[in-house]
Design a protein that fits this description.
Rossmann fold, single chain, 8-stranded mixed beta sheet
Length: about 220
């Protein structure tokens, strides 16, 4: 399984790429600039003893090479990026959407979310990708600060999807990162709730002057 992390030079994308490289997976860091993606990959390879492979490429090229695409761009870049990579998405590809529609995208607060016509950012992605591409929503509530550090991450990841294979792939990627536990959140429409939790976690971080707030689902 080869994973393309689109927007992989950002904090969240590079954190996920680093963790999957450590876990022995094959990762391509996608970027608008090929050299920037390659530089990010080289930096990770030079600083952690990964068991997999890691490389950098322009976003469209990264997507063409991948079996799984993980979208880790800000909400304001989501639609434009999906249009850019649409022709490179092959039937059978699984796309995992990490996008959160924070109001900061339009100059508002990080602690608020925007209403998305489709219901959620993940549903917007599902509407824009070609037929045959399966979409799951995951990783919205995992702090990039924790991804960048060593050791297990004390957090659950709620996975929402209308496709069983996409859900299974997302579970596999969650469990590749020590400490994370995947929780089945049902249909993709429930991603709107998960996305809103991110704004709540940001509020908690601000009030506690921290960076690592996450969620755990009990009783399961």
């Amino acid at each position: 399984m080869k994973i393309a992390v689109v927007g992989g030079t950002g904090a969240e994308g590079s954190g996920l790429a680093r963790r999957w490289f450590l876990a022995g997976l094959d990762v391509i860091i996608g970027s608008r600039d090929e050299k920037r993606g390659q530089a990010a990959a080289e930096k990770i390879a030079a600083t952690v003893p990964g068991k997999g492979t890691i490389s950098g490429a322009e976003n469209q090229e990264a997507v063409q090479q991948a079996d799984v695409v993980v979208l880790t761009v800000p909400f304001e870049s989501q639609v434009g990026m999906l249009k850019q990579i649409k022709a490179s998405l092959k039937p059978g590809t699984v796309l995992i959407d990490n996008t959160v529609p924070l109001a900061a995208a339009v100059g508002g607060r990080l602690t608020r979310t925007l209403l998305v016509w489709q219901g959620s950012a993940a549903q917007q992605t599902a509407e824009l990708v070609p037929e045959g591409v399966a979409v799951a929503a995951a990783f919205q509530n995992v702090s990039h600060e924790l991804l960048a550090h060593e050791g297990p991450i004390d957090c659950d990841v709620i996975v929402c999807s209308d496709d069983d294979r996409a859900r299974s792939v997302a579970f596999e990627l969650v469990h590749a990162i020590p400490g994370l536990r995947a929780v089945d959140g049902g249909k993709l429409e429930n991603a709107r709730i998960v996305e809103q939790i991110t704004a709540l976690l940001i509020t908690i971080n601000v009030r506690r002057k921290g960076h690592g707030a996450g969620i755990r689902i009990t009783g399961i």
